[in-house]
Design a protein that fits this description.
By secondary structure, the protein is an alpha/beta fold. The protein has 2 domains: 350 residues, Alpha-Beta Horseshoe (Leucine-rich repeat, LRR (right-handed beta-alpha superhelix)); 70 residues, no CATH class. It contains 5 helices and 17 strands. A 14-stranded parallel beta sheet has the order 1-2-3-4-5-6-7-8-9-10-11-12-13-14, with no helix packed on it. Strand 3, helix 2 and strand 4 form a beta-alpha-beta unit. Helix 4 packs antiparallel against helix 5. The longest helix is centred in the N-terminal third of the chain and has 18 residues.
Length: 422
């Protein structure tokens, strides 16, 4: 018998023993992965239980006697075969945490509104198509998990959950958010990945405590100006949408450290992006950008900059001021007009063929001084004193330039270096 099976057998044996001697039962009981299809009626005798975990079993319901567990504070019935909220749970008025993740519930009962002491409710990975209006009665709720369901909207009463801190709605079919969501002034995390949202309400700007807003894989075509009011926001993921522009007000997000706009339809970036002085990661890959604003040089804390998959014909010299830049991915358009490349004090490249050159050129070295694999990142740097401020590329042999060209430098640049050497 393997270790897990031994633990499962022990947990079930202990549970049966406590049913015979209820007074010996501890406050915290775990009977998960025990292949249980039903709970015996004697479970109602364990009146001292405060925390019960019966996850990963085959329960389709609970015995009527379960409502006698009035001291229960935490109940985990995740990954069972429940198709509806057992009404026996509704009688547990002191319950603070309820985990129903991974069941087959299609519509939670209106009775759920009676659990007004709940702080945490997890209904993720079910088959919910709507939420009851009585959800608004759970005014002490701090965490609400609704990921991977079939929800298309939220009840207007969602705005009554005034102390809610975390709301996860990723992998649903949400087409819009109610204006009342702006009443969630204590909300810190809002996850809406992989939905069908085409826009955001202006009231989104009222979420003054929000630090993380995840909107990847939606159908957003524009953003409200009010998004600039989210002054505490540190992470904003808008990748894989249909945005053609972002409002100037985005420059007001002074706490932002990560901004992901990958795979949209952006043709420009507002100059105000230069006001994001806390920004460390900026991803603009796979858009329709032809140039970047000079103000990007004001992002002095920027560590990572992704620009691949655009049609850039102009790279501002001001990027040279980004002394903290650690990773720069950039593949110019064939018609790129290169500025003086002295500002490129360092460039990151990768590729198997470059490895064979690294031992022969002292101005090429790995970040940690050693190789991990054939796709290690190599850094090209200035070496010695360059009185004439020559580009780092002019110091490299022409054959190495051709290798680099495959990964980061387009043909016109290599041709320019050819003409210099000739």
């Amino acid at each position: 018998m393997n270790k897990r099976k031994r633990q499962t057998a022990t947990a079930w044996d202990d549970f049966c023993r406590y049913l015979k001697r209820p007074r010996s039962c501890p406050n915290n009981l775990k009977v998960s992965r025990s292949n249980i299809h039903f709970l015996p009626r004697d479970v109602g005798k364990l009146i001292n239980l405060r925390k019960l975990k019966i996850a990963v079993n085959h329960l389709t319901g609970l015995p009527q006697e379960f409502k006698n567990l009035t001291n229960l504070r935490s109940l985990n019935v995740a990954y069972n075969d429940l198709t509806e909220l057992p009404l026996e749970i509704v009688s547990l008025s002191h319950l603070k945490e309820l985990n129903l993740n991974g069941n087959q519930i299609t519509s939670p009962s209106e009775e759920i509104g009676k659990l007004n002491n709940l702080r945490k409710l997890i209904l993720s990975n079910n088959s919910l198509t709507h939420l009851p209006d009585t959800l608004a009665n759970l005014n002490r709720l701090r965490t609400l998990g609704l990921t991977e369901n079939q929800l298309t909207s939220l009840p207007q009463g969602i705005g009554n959950l005034s102390v809610l801190v975390e709301l996860t709605l990723s992998y649903n079919e949400m087409t819009h958010l109610p204006n009342e969501i702006g009443n969630l002034s204590n909300l810190v995390t809002l996850k809406l990945r992989s939905n069908q949202l085409t826009g955001l309400p202006d009231s989104i700007g009222n979420l003054s405590s929000l630090t993380k807003l995840l909107l990847r894989w939606n159908q957003l075509s524009e953003l409200p100006d009010s998004i600039g009011n989210l002054r505490n926001l540190t992470t904003l993921d808008l990748s894989k949408n249909r945005l053609t522009s972002v409002p100037d007000s985005i420059g007001n997000l002074h706490s932002l450290t990560k901004l992901d706009l990958e795979k949209n339809r952006l043709t420009s970036v507002p100059d105000s992006i230069g006001n994001l002085h806390s920004l460390e990661i900026l991803t603009l890959s796979k858009n329709r950008l032809t140039r970047l604003p000079d103000e990007i040089g004001n992002l002095h804390n920027l560590i990572t900059l992704h620009l691949c998959g655009n049609k850039l014909i102009y790279i501002p010299q001001e990027i040279g001021a980004l002394s903290n830049l650690d990773y720069f991915s950039f593949l110019p358009h064939k018609k790129v007009m290169y500025p003086n490349c002295d500002f490129l004090s360092s460039v990151w490249i990768s590729g198997e063929k470059i490895r064979e050159y690294c031992k022969h050129h002292k101005n090429i070295y790995t970040r940690r001084g050693r190789w991990k694999n054939t796709w290690d990142i190599i850094r090209l740097m200035y070496v010695g004193h360059m009185k004439e401020k020559e580009s780092v590329f002019s110091m490299l042999p022409i054959e190495l330039l051709f290798v680099i060209e495959r990964y980061i430098i387009s043909e016109p640049f290599v041709e320019a270096d050819k003409s210099k050497k000739n």
